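Weekly sync, protein design subgroup
Attendees: M.S., D.O., the rotation student, P.L. (late)

Item 1: inverse folding check
M.S. brought a backbone from last month's batch and wanted to see whether the design step gives back something sensible before we order anything. D.O. pointed out we never logged the input encoding, so this time it goes straight into the notes. Structure tokens as presented (221 positions):
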């Protein structure tokens, strides 16, 4: 008989580790945001946020959670005879509220960064990749709507591999690479990519900032 438990455990283990790391990063981001710590930027670095497109949605969910917590507390207290149920539901409600605030904080304190030597592309605390200007052929402003809500999406366009790091199923900047590069991103595996697409609230500002770098590469809109 073939033992299938070992491959299953091999898959579950990394998933649990990534989930635990993501959870811990969310709480660290909440702590750093609550303490209003300044962004760790180097001289010449300029941050560009990407929260704007999902900020209203997050605000609605956070507001609903604030309203739901006392409502569920009253309902459970008067309907469920088991007393610990109230504290379990209350704890889950508060955890969910703080988690969503932590997600907001993570997106706030981890912006994209344009520097003298390259472009830093980020999304929350889970995606952080560095692209030197020497590897960039062109930057182009182009708004795209993607078919999926996944934050990282991979497309094959002929012999070119394109990866989109999206926010709210959107991207606004195309980064064309001089040579295929491999990035540590979910879903991309070990295959190199030819183009990276990302979302920024102010794509025009990001392109202007990139033009001011001493990089010897063309930047176009």
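Designed sequence read out in the meeting:
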């Amino acid at each position: 008989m073939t033992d299938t438990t070992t491959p299953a455990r091999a898959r579950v283990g990394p998933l649990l580790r990534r989930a635990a790391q993501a959870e811990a990063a969310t709480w660290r981001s909440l702590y750093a945001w609550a303490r209003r710590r300044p962004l760790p930027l180097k001289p010449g670095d300029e941050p560009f946020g990407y929260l704007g497109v999902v900020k209203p949605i997050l605000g609605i969910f956070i507001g609903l959670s604030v309203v739901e917590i006392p409502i569920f507390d009253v309902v459970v207290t008067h309907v469920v005879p088991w007393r610990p149920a109230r504290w379990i539901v209350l704890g889950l409600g508060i955890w969910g509220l703080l988690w969503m605030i932590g997600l907001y904080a993570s997106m706030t304190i981890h912006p994209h960064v344009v520097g003298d030597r390259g472009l830093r592309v980020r999304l929350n605390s889970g995606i952080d990749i560095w692209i030197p200007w020497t590897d960039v052929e062109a930057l182009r402003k182009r708004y795209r709507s993607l078919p999926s809500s996944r934050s990282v999406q991979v497309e094959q366009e002929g012999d070119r591999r394109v990866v989109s790091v999206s926010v709210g199923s959107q991207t606004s900047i195309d980064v064309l690479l001089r040579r295929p590069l491999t990035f540590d991103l979910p879903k991309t595996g070990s295959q190199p990519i030819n183009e990276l697409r990302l979302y920024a609230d102010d794509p025009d500002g990001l392109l202007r900032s990139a033009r001011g770098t001493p990089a010897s590469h063309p930047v176009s809109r």
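Discussion: The helical segments are 5-34, 55-79, 84-109, 203-211. DSSP finds four helices and nine strands in the chain.
Action: P.L. to compare against the previous round before Friday.
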